[in-house]
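Morning, I've got a small favour to ask if you have a moment. I owe you a coffee for this, so here goes:

…
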Amino acid sequence: MITRKATRSGLPDLRDYFRETWRFRTFALRWSAADVKARNFETAFGRAWHVINPLLFGLIYFIFVGILSGGGLDSISMLAAIIGNLYLWLFFSSIINSSIGAIQSGAGGILIQSAIPRIVIPIASTITSTNLFMRSLIAYVPIHLVSERGLHIEMLYIPLIVVLTGLFGFGLSLLLATLNVYARDVSRLVPHVLRLWLYLSPVIWLYTRVLGESSLDQFARLNPLYPAMTAWTIALGGHIDPSGPRILEQIGIFSLWTFAVLVPSVLIFISKEDEFEIRK
């Protein structure tokens, strides 16, 4: 068991810390299973809602984008692309929202009453989001087939993109959860920031719209989620522009973003976790 004083002393021995975290892996899995049950996923209505939610969002944004762009509402392929992209986006955003909420609430008092490493709770939240994402993604399959987006060799990269997105969301959630301990308004700002981030990312619009050399296009491609959503779009629908971004290139860029966020966020979270209950 790791014993530490709740001071600003910094990082513990990381080998001991991660060894202790691994010891609680069964707890994380059971916590995740209970969380899934609490969200009513085990009921027929709960399962239906997790399937319908991305579909409704996709339809709304499809109509919204079609009207604004003047491109019409008759492209089933575009509808499928938006819905497919929203599945990954909702996976990413759910990791952040659930992890911040769990840390803010003290995981229902468990963090106060035990010496469990605090990072176990965001890990459990990430497992829950991954579980729900994988289950609900099955509903996209018929949409993909009806839209005739086809089968592509790039689909082999889907598991890697999902893993990187999960790690990126997990790392960002640790950073935001830590900030939220010191400034409670962070949790109120996060949903608005995520909504703005959605609009600035190629989720409801195609990545090919910002392939130019203008300053605005280059700035749009600096978005950490641009390579993630670009790789995801290519994985599901193939390369839209033969001369455009390649999937391995985008996965490589997103990998750099992921570990640039994940590593320092983990270290910051661990170094500050002893102060979480003091500052409640």
Summary: The two ends are 24 Å apart (CA to CA).
